[in-house]
Amino acid sequence: MTHAARPLRADARRNRDRLLEAALEAFSREPSDEVTLERVARDAGVGIGTLYRHFPTREALIEEVYRAELARLCESAPRLLAELPPDAALRAWMDGFIDYSAAKRGLAEALRTVIAAGGHPFAESRARMEAALGALLAAGADTGLRQDVDPYDVLVALSAVSLWVSEPDRRAQGGRVLDLLMDGLRFTR
User: Fold this and answer.
1) What phi and psi, each to the nearest 5 degrees, are found at residue 8?
2) What residue spans define the domains of the chain?
3) What is the fold of 8-56?
C-alpha cells in the first residue's frame, strides 16, 4: 500500500521556499563547485538537516531550483491575465521570461551536474512554456493579437532576445526588441 505525500506544514513550506531562494541566489552568483550546501542552509536561515530533509542530494536541490523558476514563470500567465489586458499580460510575461532566462544562465553550470548525474531538468520546460504562451495568445484573440502564431515560434524569438540581454547594459534594448515583437503579434489588416 502506498501513501500519498502529505502536504507540507506552513513552516516547512517556508523553510523549503527559503532554501530554494538561497540556492538560486548562490548558484546564480558563484561557480557551482564553490557553493556549499551548508552555506545555502545558513543563507536560508535553517540547519543542514532541514536542507537534507527537503533535498536529499545536491542535484535534487539544483533541479528543484530550476523547476521552481520554471513554475513561477508558467504559473504567472493566469495571474497576469486576471490583472491586465491580454496584450499587456503577454508583454509582462515576456519580461518574466527574460528574468527566468537570466536565472537559468546562472544555474547552467549547476544544471550540467544534474544532467551528468542522470537528471532531466528540462523534460517539461518547453511544453509548459508553450502552454503558458498559448493561453496568453488565445486570450488576446478578441483584442487584436494574431491567432496564426505558433507559441513555439514566440518562444524561439524570446530565447534570442534573452541571449542578447545577458549583458546588463543591453536590458533596455531588450525591452525595445520585446516591444517590436509585440507589434508583430498584433493583427493588422
Assistant:
1) -70, 145
2) 8-56, 68-185
3) Arc Repressor Mutant, subunit A (1.10.10)
Going by C-alpha positions, the residue among 28, 133, 25, 121 that lies closest to residue 76 is 133
Q: How far is CA 65 from CA 1, 9, 109, in A?
A: 31, 20, 13
In Å, the largest CA–CA distance within the chain is 62
CA dihedral 136, 140, 144, 146 (to 10 degrees): 50
Is 29:106 a contact under the CB 8 Å cutoff?
Answer: yes
What are the pLDDT digits (tens) for 39-63? 999 999 999 999 999 999 998 998 8
Q: Are 137 and 185 in contact (CB under 8 A)?
A: yes
pLDDT 10s digits, 121-155: 777 888 999 999 999 999 998 888 998 999 999 99
DSSP bridge pairs for 145: 186
Domain 68-185 homologous superfamily, CATH: Tetracycline Repressor, domain 2 (1.10.357.10)
pTM of the model: 0.81
In sequence order, what are the beta bridge partners of 186?
145
Instruction: Provide the pLDDT confidence category of residue 91 given band limits of 50, 70 and 90.
Output: very high
